[in-house]
């Protein structure tokens, strides 16, 4: 009889659905930050300055991620992946629902942005613990020959979450004039309660990771986060740097691009949201295809090709967006979507394969959190600041190219992982060899 694939399929489905819901929660914030929060929480400033302050609250969620990464990584390496993922999903959903109920600056003054930042910080802690667990549940349930493909399903949750958030905001655009700014922006946040209930039900039905069960039988590490940093500090930092490029490209084009298109190029909100939705329709299958390709040719070649492609398409994207015409703008967004998918589609499996199972949750979370603070989290702020200083989008494209260069160099220092087993086997000494030899 063949191997029962139902536990793997449930794990992959739970990772995908839960991640999509959590990223929906995260992205409706970023969309609101680009389109609404400047007016609702920072109304006393000029539009672009208000947008910059709004994006500053956005980055707070990324700053909080390392805290969540260490906290939930510790729990995930000691208590198991499944239980932690249920907690992070519940916490993320609760924070999103609360944001939908927050008073605005016109109602409570300075307390409005203070409350917004506080809830956003807790939301970031939850997401900091989410990613590593979702990746590991998918990868650790998969066979060695197909880890790239099944690991990419976790990454698919990101464009699905973004597409859902933009679709909801696009529908809200149909409300009467002024409704979005007055109360319509709250609807996507309140709707998240229904999505979280679905994800919660799915995750409760998933089996614990088989590799964690092996770790638990031998005895989990007492301080997994400390041991991960002590034994694997080099690959953690190199992975964090390698992950800068896809995070920067995604948030510069898909998040900052919303405000750039509406405020600088002066196209409609609906047009920019539509461009993002069409881009995600391309990203989704590409992530799966490149994940499967990495199973055949290796993680590094696919990832490196994606980074190089992002560097080559940064300036064409910007110049095409500057035309203000839908078709050229769409071409620009599609150009950056394909190489982004190559890099991001392989990232999850690359991270999981570099670290031993006993400290893997902590190591993946820490690496990904660092990458997001300095890559994805900073991209909208850096891009907005460059635009304010130069009144031109060209420096933003140059910034993307620079980040891609850093990622390419650091990726080259990592060892290829596709030919090796992601698990740590029975020997603790093999764990140390994998961790210490992951970077050359």
TrEMBL record:
Keyword Cell membrane: yes
Chief location: membrane
Family matches, as Gene3D superfamilies: MFS general substrate transporter like domains
Keywords noted in UniProt: Cell membrane, Membrane, Transmembrane, Transmembrane helix, Transport
Signal peptide: none
Keyword Transport included in the entry's annotation: yes
Bilayer topology: Multi-pass membrane protein
Record localization: Cell membrane
Domain Major facilitator superfamily (MFS) profile residue range list: 11-416
Residue stretches spanning the membrane: 12-37, 49-72, 84-102, 108-128, 149-175, 187-204, 232-252, 272-290, 302-319, 331-354, 366-388, 394-414
The protein's name in its UniProt record: MFS transporter
């Amino acid at each position: 009889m063949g191997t029962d694939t139902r536990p793997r399929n449930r794990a992959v489905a739970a990772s995908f659905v839960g991640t999509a819901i959590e990223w929906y929660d995260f992205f409706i914030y970023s969309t609101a930050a680009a389109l609404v929060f400047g007016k609702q929480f920072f109304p006393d400033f000029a539009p672009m300055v208000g947008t910059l302050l709004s994006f500053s609250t956005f980055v707070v969620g990324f700053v909080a991620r390392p805290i969540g990464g260490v906290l939930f990584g510790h729990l995930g390496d000691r208590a198991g992946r499944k239980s932690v993922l249920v907690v992070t999903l519940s916490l993320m959903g609760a924070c999103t629902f609360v944001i939908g109920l927050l008073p605005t600056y016109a109602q409570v003054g300075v307390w409005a942005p203070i409350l917004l930042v506080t809830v956003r910080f807790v939301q970031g802690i939850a997401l900091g613990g989410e990613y590593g667990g979702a990746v590991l549940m998918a990868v650790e349930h998969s066979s060695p020959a197909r880890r790239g493909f099944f690991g990419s399903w976790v990454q698919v949750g990101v464009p699905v979450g973004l597409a859902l958030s933009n679709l909801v905001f696009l529908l809200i655009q149909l409300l009467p004039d002024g409704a979005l700014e007055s109360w319509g922006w709250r609807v996507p946040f309140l709707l998240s309660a229904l999505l979280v209930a679905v994800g919660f039900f799915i995750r409760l039905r998933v089996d614990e990771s088989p590799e964690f069960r092996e770790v638990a039988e031998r005895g989990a590490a007492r301080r997994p986060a400390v041991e991960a940093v002590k034994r694997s500090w080099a690959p953690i930092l190199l992975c964090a740097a390698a992950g800068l490029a896809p995070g920067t490209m995604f948030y510069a084009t898909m998040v900052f691009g919303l405000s750039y298109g509406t405020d600088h190029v002066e196209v409609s909100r609906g047009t920019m949201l539509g461009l993002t939705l069409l881009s995600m329709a391309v990203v989704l299958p590409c992530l799966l295809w490149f994940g499967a390709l990495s199973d055949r040719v290796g993680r590094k070649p696919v990832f490196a090709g994606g980074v190089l492609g992002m560097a080559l398409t940064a300036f064409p994207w910007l110049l095409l967006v500057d035309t203000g015409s839908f078709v050229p703008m769409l071409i620009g967004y599609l150009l950056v979507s394909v190489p982004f998918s190559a890099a991001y589609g392989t990232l999850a499996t690359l991270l999981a394969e570099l670290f031993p199972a006993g400290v893997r949750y902590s190591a993946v979370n820490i690496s990904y959190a660092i990458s997001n603070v300095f890559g994805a989290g900073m991209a909208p702020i850096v891009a907005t600041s460059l635009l304010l200083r130069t009144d031109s989008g060209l420096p933003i494209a140059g910034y993307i190219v620079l980040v891609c260069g850093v990622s390419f160099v650091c990726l080259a220092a990592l060892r290829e992982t596709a030919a090796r087993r992601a698990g740590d086997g029975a020997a603790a000494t093999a764990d140390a060899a994998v961790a210490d030899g992951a970077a050359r």
